[in-house]
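To: structure subgroup
Subject: Chain for Friday's discussion

All,

I'm putting the inputs and outputs inline so they're searchable in the archive.
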Amino acid sequence: MRHHGPPRQPSPAPGRRRIAPSAGPGTAVRPQTPSTGAGIAKSSAQIHRISLATWGWTLAGEPAPTGPARRGAKPPVFPLTAIDDPALPEVQAEPAAARADEMDADTVNRELSIARKAIGWWQRQGWIESDPTIGIERRPAPPDRTKALAEEQIAALWRLDVSLREKTFWKMLYESAARADEVLCLNVEDLYPQDKRGRITARGGAIEWTHWQSGTARLLPRLIARRPRGPLFLTDRKAPAGTPTLDVCSETGRARLSCRRAEEIFEENTRLLANPLASPEGIEDLNGWTLHRLRHGALTHDAEGGTSTPMLPARSRHASVRSLERYARPGVDAVARHVAERDPAARRKR
């Protein structure tokens, strides 16, 4: 997805290259990094920019804002040449450790990997010599056996009183088993409603197709509302000045919905579903679901339903069958049915 930061800052003086994160997630990195090169999917480039913006805070020895506080926050401008300061690893160790305590292991490890790729690229250009992340270790990520939403949880999700945009977006994610960032990159002109499919730019920049079912097909015409082109999923407000034209709907003047905001909305709306015994008064202190659980649930339910091994990677667009192992594990519903079918008391009762 394409996001826009504040107006471009004047070029730094010769010999003083710098990382200049812009407001919010639309990180502008100067000089060019691998995330801005050709062959990188728009959604992947956006993830790179967000991660490097976060490291802009960490490298400056400050904690990166999280949650709603992140929106509109302006990361510090950090001179790229300062990365070679021998004191930097010690300065940024504390905020890096604090963030590791606040975020899940997958997020922290992904941000560390992206930072190291950028640092390696800058080193190959001869701009820096040091790696300030050298002392930071990847966090062990224990396997989460509960990521696949149960069928009853999916059914409860459809009963929520939410906007048409959220209904359509969530339904498309589950029915297509697509990644959230890929779906948010869809434009109206990318859709082929009669075939129930859309053309997406996948990770690595490949052009591929995502397919949905009747639930999404019934909602799409109302969401599109005869718009001929522009972003499929739009924000509630008018796009701010300077937003790239490709991310603005010419009919409504609204901007493309960001993945960060879409995650916030989903998490907020699913807190009671994720914590069924919690009281509404204390729900703000609890976490809801992540959008990835819709994809995880769809692929797990496919595997439980007997979807063939060749079809699963084609549907999920994974390059390796091995990467599908985490989805092919039987989910909670399948295990519950297995136990119930082998319950001696239940068999006698029937």
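Points worth raising on Friday:
The radius of gyration is 22 Å.
Residues 1-32 have pLDDT under 50 and may be disordered.

D.
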